[in-house]
Amino acid sequence: MRPNLRRLATFGTCLVAAVALGASHPVSATDGDEDFTLYAREVPGDEEGEGGAPALGDSFSFADDLYRTKGGEKVGRDGVTCTIVRLGNPGDLQCVGTFALSGGYLTGQTLMQFDPANESAELPPFDIAITGGTGDYEEARGSIRSTDDGEYSKLDFRVRG
Questions:
Q1: pLDDT top residue among 3 and 42
Q2: In whole angstroms, what is the distance from residue 95 CA to residue 111 CA?
Q3: 156 or 15, higher pLDDT
Q4: 59: Cβ–Cβ under 8 A, 6 or more apart, which residues?
Q5: Please, are residues 83 and 92 in contact by the beta-carbon 8 Å criterion?
Q6: How far out from the chain centre does Cα 84 lie?
Q7: In whole angstroms, what is the distance from residue 144 CA to residue 142 CA?
Q8: Is the link from the previous residue into 90 a cis peptide, with omega within 30 of 0?
Q9: Nearest to residue 26, comparing CAs of 119, 138, 113?
Q10: What is the 3-state secondary structure (H, E, C) of the chain?
Q11: Does the global pTM surpass 0.85?
Q12: CA quadruple 113, 119, 121, 125: dihedral, nearest 10
């Protein structure tokens, strides 16, 4: 898949940031609400695809490392898969992420618009739904706002549980 579509899917990096809460502030029904910011950076991987036009059903996967600050302490990791579910202008990507955390797993998803004609456009801020988890994250709900921030994505978490 084309690298510009992989960039759209950086939302997954947002979700794993809850790892930072795993040791000192686990997400659970008894802990209440948590708001925090982390920075995500994609892990280099094999570039796939021929660079042609996207097609319905095309998918791609990626992984990210998460940091408390840009270039600071690494606090987590994720794995995300996105699939093109609508073509046109705009098109839609359905993205789902699963994140291994110190206290369990955290999951999230989003439906993102993309413009297949404009590969170099800066990705506008977007929201991701926190859909659940296991272990310390069993009651997790909320949202994450992802914003491009240079080589990183800035992830503003609102975890409710």
A1: 42
A2: 6
A3: 156
A4: 1, 81, 82, 83, 84
A5: no
A6: 16
A7: 7
A8: yes
A9: 138
A10: CCHHHHHHCCHHHHHHHHHHHHCCCCCCCCCCCEEEEEEEEECCCCCCCCCCCCCCCCEEEEEEEEECCCCCCEEEEEEEEEEEEECCCCEEEEEEEEEEECCEEEEEEEEEEECCCCCCCCCCCEEEEEEEECHHHCCCEEEEEEEEECCEEEEEEEEEC
A11: no
A12: 30
pLDDT computed for residue 32 by the predictor: 61
pLDDT digits (tens, 9 = 90+) for 88-114: 888 999 999 877 666 677 789 999 998
Share of the chain above pLDDT 70, in %: 71
Place of tokens 């491009």: 148
Instruction: Estimate to the nearest angstrom the gap between the alpha carbon of 14 and the chain centroid.
Output: 4
**CA 56/CA 46 separation, integer angstroms:** 22
Question: What's the one-letter identity of residue 97?
Answer: G
